[in-house]
Amino acid sequence: METGEQKNSKKARVDPPVAPLVPCMVSIDKAKFQCPVCTHPLKPPIFQCAAGHLACGACHGQLADKERCYRCAQSGGYSRNFPLEDVVRSTRAMCPYVVFGCPSSVPLYEMGDHQPKCPHAPCRCPEPGCAFFGSPAWLSYHLRATHSWPVNIIDYGKACQLQLPASKPRCLLVAMEDGRVFVVSVGAHRAVSLVSLRANAAAGPHYTCKMSASGSAAAASGKVPNVSVEMEVPSSAVAGEAAATDTEAKVAAALVVPRKMLHGPSKELHLNVRIDKAQT
């Protein structure tokens, strides 16, 4: 029969403390984390035959004979490799764009999804002879500090007034809300383009804009000539270049301003620009 002291000692028993997780940096051959069937990164669920031959969940689902190993033909089917799944989940790598400011550390099997959407993917400077290469935020600072590009802080959904002389046909727009960088530039034949400065358009969000240009009031009628366009905003990894494809280029340079609408001896373009986040 248990005494009162024995009962109390049982009630007071506690589990031993769990050691905290301590991350460490190791070097591993990435090939060891690839499915031997499709060569894509292993992603849970992971299956193996009795001899240890692996298959990722997608490949296992497509096997014609799940009772016999695709490699060694051993019978007995497949079972889940839970220890390896835990290792795969906990094995993380820094984004390749860490040198450009990306702080993300993601599982190896998610890197293929992260990298094409990383907002820190580098862009290059468009100034002749300049080899600068960096994230959109770094390039924005570089263009301001090194090449004296004018900068305008904007709010989404609100119009911004711009005056671009022929001698300085480009400027940066930086969104107050999230620091996103846009470039307005005037090309040949006064074709005005607006692009989102980023290498990965898939990073999102996406934008629409309304641009308009106005001239001087006519002496006779007092009417102010105006041209405008509404469009989706394409992305570009090079500030001042319209876009990566012919289709995007046509969209980006959709506003062509007649010569008679330029202002003064400096041939200024007077623009009204409004950028909105596209509804998803």
From TrEMBL:
EC number, UniProt record: 2.3.2.27
Reactions catalysed, as given in the entry: S-ubiquitinyl-[E2 ubiquitin-conjugating enzyme]-L-cysteine + [acceptor protein]-L-lysine = [E2 ubiquitin-conjugating enzyme]-L-cysteine + N(6)-ubiquitinyl-[acceptor protein]-L-lysine
Metabolic or biological pathway, per its Swiss-Prot or TrEMBL entry: Protein modification; protein ubiquitination
InterPro entries reported in the protein's UniProt record: Sina-like_RING, SINL_plant, Znf_RING/FYVE/PHD, Znf_SIAH
Record key words, sorted: Metal-binding, Transferase, Ubl conjugation pathway, Zinc, Zinc-finger
Molecular-function annotations in GO: ubiquitin protein ligase activity; zinc ion binding
One biological process term in Gene Ontology: protein ubiquitination
Keyword Signal found: no
Pfam families attached to this UniProt entry: Sina_RING, Sina_ZnF
Transcription among keywords: no
Superkingdom of origin organism: Eukaryota
SIAH-type domain residues: 90-148
Family of this protein: Belongs to the SINA (Seven in absentia) family.
Biological function: E3 ubiquitin-protein ligase that mediates ubiquitination and subsequent proteasomal degradation of target proteins. E3 ubiquitin ligases accept ubiquitin from an E2 ubiquitin-conjugating enzyme in the form of a thioester and then directly transfers the ubiquitin to targeted substrates. It probably triggers the ubiquitin-mediated degradation of different substrates.
Protein name: RING-type E3 ubiquitin transferase
Organism: Miscanthus lutarioriparius
